[in-house]
Design goal:
Length: about 240
């Protein structure tokens, strides 16, 4: 199975640590976020990984070259010319991920014990699904909205009041917080019309009007967003 780790961002929330290195190489107990997530993916049978790079791209390239990870092929998707966000980054990496099998997409700053095997099985048991998104019941000011069948139906921002709805039955929708882990059918590349820099969540919300995108509930699992310096001690207490 293939996977992509999103590692191109500036890591603004992680400053000042990211003023001299990329967020992907921030360490938790001496092991970088990138290395931890490569090991995580390998545990679930991934044999090919794409890593996109922009901020201090050469440091990530040098790190991967020096590590020489075994039993996996690692590709670099170069965004040195411009950071493309999640959707644009995925589209640029399409040549590595296109094919017949679904693939995993995940943020480099997420640490979790989510069982990818179970999530993949859920995704593969629904042939019509375009993407499956890991979600939990934790609060998020920007929540995805799902119906009773776990199908994506919208999004809301509690801070701004902005909403995107694909149904007139908003009262039946359940808000869930996205965990930064996706299982995606390569068919999605047939439907991505956006160009340049754009969010994959915006693509999902557009496509959900005509295609099936499911939420995969994994509340109760460990999930840490290691996006700020103060989150590192919490991560180090759990991920040894």
């Amino acid at each position: 199975m293939k996977a992509m780790i999103l590692a191109a961002g500036f890591g603004t929330r992680m400053q000042p640590l990211t003023l001299t290195r990329p967020k992907a190489l921030i360490e938790v107990n001496g092991i970088s976020l990138l290395e931890r997530n490569i090991a995580y993916l390998l545990h679930f049978g991934v044999t090919e990984i794409v890593v996109n790079v922009h901020h201090f791209a050469h440091q990530i390239v040098d790190f991967l070259s020096a590590k020489k990870f075994q039993n996996v092929t690692i590709h670099i998707s170069d965004e040195s010319d411009a950071v493309l966000e999640t959707g644009g980054g995925l589209k640029r990496a399409a040549r590595f991920l296109d094919g017949k099998e679904s693939f995993i997409l995940m943020n480099v700053d997420i640490l979790t014990n989510l069982s990818l095997g179970k999530m993949i099985n859920f995704h593969q048991s629904h042939q019509e699904v375009l993407a499956t998104l890991a979600v939990t019941d934790r609060y998020s000011s920007r929540a995805l909205l799902f119906d009773e069948t776990r199908q994506l139906m919208g999004w809301k921002n509690d801070k701004t009041g902005e909403k995107i709805l694909n149904t007139d039955k908003e009262e039946r929708l359940v808000p869930k917080a996205f965990s930064g882990v996706h299982v995606i059918s390569p068919r999605i590349f047939d439907y991505i019309e956006e160009e340049g820099k754009f969010s994959i969540i915006d693509v999902y919300l557009r496509l959900a009007r005509q295609h099936v995108i499911y939420g995969y509930e994994h509340s109760g699992d460990i999930l840490l967003d290691v996006g700020k310096p103060e989150s590192i001690p919490f991560a180090e207490a759990i991920f040894l």
